Amino acid sequence: MTNELPLTKEAILDAAEQVLRRYGPDKTSVIDIAKFLQVSHGTLYRHFASKAALREAVTERWLDKSIAEPLEGIADTAKGSAAEQLRLWLETLIKKKRMYAVDDAEMFVMYADVTLETGDMITMHINRLMKQIASIIERGMQAGEFKPDSADAISRAVFLATSSFHHPAHAHEWSSETIEEDFDTVWRLLLSGLK
Amino acid sequence: MTNELPLTKEAILDAAEQVLRRYGPDKTSVIDIAKFLQVSHGTLYRHFASKAALREAVTERWLDKSIAEPLEGIADTAKGSAAEQLRLWLETLIKKKRMYAVDDAEMFVMYADVTLETGDMITMHINRLMKQIASIIERGMQAGEFKPDSADAISRAVFLATSSFHHPAHAHEWSSETIEEDFDTVWRLLLSGLK
Question: Chain A: residue nearest B168 by CA?
């Protein structure tokens, strides 16, 4: 007996996130999520064409809430030194990734998998983050704190040059004893390149 | 009927590399390699305790021959500007990785898998590469071309900051249209940080 009430996308994503956390992304099927919602899997497929589409939508919402939105707050706070703001932004990104890799391992593993499939969603997420860095770098350039250059190209380079500290494929390196020191040296190099 | 002649490690690695290339790393079993060598799989297991150990040994030899040794030649040629030498070293590493990802896909996929398992072998390979960069950076520091600093820490930072261009987990990003431009911007930032 299923309860075929109209479903919102948000309600499906809430349910999917709970079920994915409980069983892990590999073991969760669309049927598990349908059962949890007490609807038929046909109903679910009317909202999401495949398990892949559902995983991507859950990951997208998770990345927005857990990563992009909190970082937006830092990027929008335009006071003090742009270098300090940029370092805070990068360190917050890195800390959040490291924390979620351990404390929200199911979501993190799913996000790592979705990243390897490189859909448009991940590109959009990265573009959103790079726009935030660009706004900080642009402010630094306007204030004469950073050398004039293309803020977009430089922010892309800063994001790429710090990948090993925030890209999920490097998560197994984050428990290294030298990781803080390594980031510090990369940061010093980049900062003296920006100035 | 098997032909139990004494086997050298080199002969086993030669055979394993051929069989792995033919069937791909996932589909190759130790039995396939034993058959190819016309020995029992027991004989093979006396040399390599597991399929994982054999894959690691094949990858180690492949990395030495294809990556570390050719780069050693560049690191050892101490003439002209250290900045140009460092850029050539990095570009050669990046070009080789990109070429092998396409032209030697089976070996590359196996290497990418072995890297994720992060054994001591990969750490040793990376340390070997970082020593090569350190020798270039040290020369640049001694010549006053680069700011004085710890050559080891800086070479580690340069290697990490260019990971997205040479770490196998990023291989799917290497077909991006902006990859050359991206490397160029990262390089400019790092170089102006070194100077």
Answer: A169
> Residue A161: which of B172, B178, B189 has the nearest Cβ?
B189
Residue B16 has pLDDT above 60, yes or no: yes
pLDDT digits (tens, 9 = 90+) for A81-124: 999 999 999 999 999 999 999 999 999 999 999 998 867 899 99
Of chain B, the end-to-end C-alpha distance in Å amounts to: 66
Inter-axis angle of helices A120-142 and A105-117, nearest 10: 90
Spatial CA neighbour of A19 closest among A54, A70, A64: A54
Q: Do B189 and A190 touch (CB under 8 A)?
A: yes
Query: How far, in Å, CA of B51 to CA of B89, rounded?
Result: 33
Min Cα distance B158 → chain A (Å) is 7
Q: Which residue of B has its CA nearest to A150?
A: B185
Distance of CA A169 to the CA centre of its chain: 13
User: What is the gyration radius of the CA atoms in chain A, in angstroms?
Assistant: 20
Distances (CA, A) of A95 to A17, A58, A174: 22, 21, 10
At residue B4, the pLDDT reads: 52
Q: Which residue, chain included where needed, has tokens 């050298």?
A: B8
Q: Is residue A35 within 8 Å of residue A29, measured between CB atoms? A: no
Q: A163 with A170: CB under 8 angstroms?
A: yes
Q: What is the DSSP string of chain B?
A: --------HHHHHHHHHHHHHHH-TTT--HHHHHHHHTS-HHHHHHH-SSHHHHHHHHHHHHHIIIIIHHHHHHHH---S-HHHHHHHHHHHHHHHHHHHHHHTHHHHHHHHHHHHHT-HHHHHHHHHHHHHHHHHHHHHHHTTSS--S-HHHHHHHHHHHTHHHHSGGGGGGTT-TTHHHHHHHHHHHHHHHH-
The gap from C-alpha B175 to its chain's centroid, in whole angstroms, comes to 19
Ordered domains of chain A (ranges, CATH): 9-47 (1.10.10), 55-194 (1.10.357.10)
B164, B182, B193 ranked by CB distance to A193: nearest: B193
Q: What is the pLDDT of residue A7?
A: 85
The reported pLDDT for the residue numbered B104 is 95
Please calculate the CA angle A73-A79-A80 and round it to the nearest 5 degrees: 125
